[in-house]
Write a structure and sequence with these properties.
mainly alpha
């Protein structure tokens, strides 16, 4: 973290994502909390985790059955997401949840059979194909280990998957089975493979210590290829490796990923039971899905509880130190929540006072300054105020300084400069954005307009031609290019 190009962002991670050093420390802390529970709390933790899985599964069933436009019951791109904002995270949680419910069916057919049906149906409604593969693995493992005694659990699992398919068909939701029948939809797989290839370039550049925790996007985005843009989408960047090993190899280097693997191996070696199964299934999902604050630390907590140890109680000095640290953490968390609240107000209501408060409360990140810049630019458009114009440029420059590797921040600065009659500065900012996302359609189209404003038609043609390579479905750009030719 200290040796990364941006130590502050490497410490905190990207805004609203959180894969920086603090997130990694949180993973170790969650495991430590799990290890330190007393023997009587193991079952309590497992039941609490199971309750969380079932609550998310119930919400997912409502999302799959009804196309509601009421938060939190809305779908994400046609798929159920539970309370986790993204169906991939729901798939991760429910895949792990199978380890908590399927083995229990042998002892309580009706109650845990119903829970298995519910969890499996939610897994199906998440639309994740890899989670379906893991469900098959769970069924095979149960049959191999318990033979005829596993029939009830495996039957409930299959029934739940079919129930999810039926709900999806009735409610018009996208299911995992539906995505498989649609031909496998290799686009997502292709995009991941290409991102992992770009990560290989980044690892070769910083092989020992990596680019710094939380810096996956900055390390890999300059290596984006046309194939990746076509497979994923223009201006849609991977901020996480979607593979925990690729993520840490890129951000903490070969030393970091080796330490991570050894630590997990030792932790798993001392662990037993259903909670270990929960962790292993979540870890398997993390080979194709991003880490997430709602699943990854919980999985490490489960791993810790599965390998709990008898530890000595804290002494007086340690208790006082823990109390002081806890107070500081609560204050910091309160500031984060307040800043997030103000940022949301700025984005939704275009409220200038809220945007300024968010900039002050969330100093490491560019997003609050970007929001403040948009608010000020809108104000300058509606009022023609010279001060609003100056504010728009000031906030956008601050956002670009906070994260020079963020192509969106540089692009928004360039667009403001172009609108406010500064084409030379805009062109420089667009070119800087393209250093960090060479195939950004938004930056390429903006660069073309900046070049035209400066009378450079040839440069504009080159930018528009490259933009059409990235995204051929741009009729307005095609028309503009024909006029230039």
């Amino acid at each position: 973290t200290a040796l990364s190009a941006q130590p502050v962002l490497s410490l905190f991670g990207l805004y609203n994502w959180g894969t920086g050093l603090l997130f990694i420390a949180g993973l170790a802390g969650a495991w430590g909390l799990g290890v330190s529970v007393d023997a009587g709390s193991v079952d309590l933790v497992e039941r609490a985790l199971l309750a969380a899985v079932l609550v998310n599964a119930l919400v997912a069933l409502v999302q799959g059955a009804f196309s509601l436009n009421v938060s939190p019951l809305t779908r994400y791109e046609g798929r159920a997401a539970g309370l986790l904002s993204n169906p991939v995270h729901l798939a991760t949680l429910t895949a792990g949840g199978l380890a908590l419910v399927v083995p229990r069916v042998r002892g309580d057919h009706w109650r845990y059979g119903a829970a298995t049906v519910l969890v499996a149906a939610a897994l199906e409604l998440s639309g994740s194909r890899f989670a379906l593969v893991l469900a098959v693995v769970v069924a095979v493992v149960m049959v191999v280990r318990h033979r005829r005694a596993a029939v009830a659990g495996v039957g409930a699992l299959v029934l739940g998957l079919l129930f999810g398919v039926a709900i999806g068909a009735l409610g018009g939701a996208t299911t995992g089975n539906g995505r498989v029948q649609a031909g496998g939809e290799t686009v997502g797989v292709s995009a991941r493979l290409r991102v992992w290839a770009s990560a290989g370039h980044a690892v070769s550049e910083h092989p020992v210590l990596g680019a710094g925790p939380g810096r996956f996007r900055a390390a890999t985005s300059p290596y984006r290829t046309l194939g990746l843009v076509r497979a994923e989408a223009p201006d849609r960047l991977f901020v996480d490796g979607h593979n925990v090993l690729v993520e840490y190899a890129t951000t903490t280097g070969l030393v970091g990923v080796a330490a991570f693997v050894v630590w997990l191996a030792l932790a798993c070696r001392r662990s037993r039971g259903r909670l270990l199964g929960f962790f292993l299934l979540v870890l398997a999902m993390h080979l194709v899905a991003p880490q997430f604050v709602g699943t990854t630390p919980v999985a490490l907590l489960a791993l810790g509880v599965a390998g709990r140890a008898e530890l000595p109680a804290f002494g007086r000095t340690a208790m006082v130190a823990s109390f002081v640290v806890a107070i500081a953490a609560l204050v910091a968390a309160g500031r984060l929540v307040w800043g997030d609240y103000e940022l949301n107000n700025a984005v939704v209501d275009f409220r200038a006072s809220s945007s300024r408060a968010a900039v002050a409360a969330l100093p490491p990140w560019p997003e609050p300054a970007e929001a403040a810049g948009r608010v000020a630019l809108f104000d300058s458009i509606t009022t023609q105020s010279p001060q609003a114009r100056r504010d728009a440029l000031r906030w956008d420059r601050l956002a670009a300084r906070r994260d020079p590797t963020d192509p969106l921040a540089s692009t928004e600065l360039a667009e403001a400069e172009l609108y406010l009659g500064r084409p030379v500065e805009a062109r420089r900012s667009f070119e800087h954005a393209l250093l960090w996302d060479p195939w950004s359609v938004r930056a390429l189209n903006g660069l073309a307009n900046a070049a035209l404003a400066g009378g450079e038609r040839a440069a504009a043609r080159r930018a528009l031609q490259r933009s059409l390579q990235a995204d051929p479905a741009q009729p307005k750009v095609r028309t503009q290019l024909r006029e230039l030719q």
